[in-house]
Amino acid sequence: MKKFFSNAIISIAAIIVGYGAMTLPFHLFSNLTGIQMRIIFIAEILIYFAVFSAFFLIKENKENRRKKEQSFQKRHNERMSKRNKAVKGIRINNYDLAA
């Protein structure tokens, strides 16, 4: 449910920003010079690139965190199994100390 709401919010925001980005040049076309229009166009491209980079970096960071957690869990399981094997075989006077 949380993922649905976050996806819906992102989709709505993308639609609004896309609409604004598409209509802005058309509204300003009659008021600005060619140089000013180029500056706005370049600024839009830079903003798109920054937003894309932010989402890409966040996704990559989550993936790295997940891989690191899996590595820690794997090492923990290996240490626990090694310790359990070492403790299991301790016998003194035919008594199993692990039991």
Molecular structure report:
This protein has helices spanning 2-28, 34-88; strands at residues 91-92, 95-96. It contains two helices and two strands; from the N terminus they run ααββ. The protein is mainly alpha-helical and 99 residues long. It has a two-stranded antiparallel ribbon. It is rod-shaped.
The order of strands across the largest sheet is 1-2
Question: Low-confidence spans: pLDDT under 50, at least 5 residues?
Answer: none
Strand content: under 5%
Count of individual beta strands: 2
Largest beta-sheet characterization: 2 strands, antiparallel
Straight-line N-to-C gap: 46 Å
- Give the ordered list of helices and strands: HHEE
The radius of gyration over CA amounts to: 29 Å
Mean pLDDT: 83
Structural class: mainly alpha
Q: Estimate the global geometry from the Cα principal axes.
A: rod-shaped
By DSSP (H or I, 4+ residues per run), the number of helices equals 2
Estimated helix fraction: over 70%
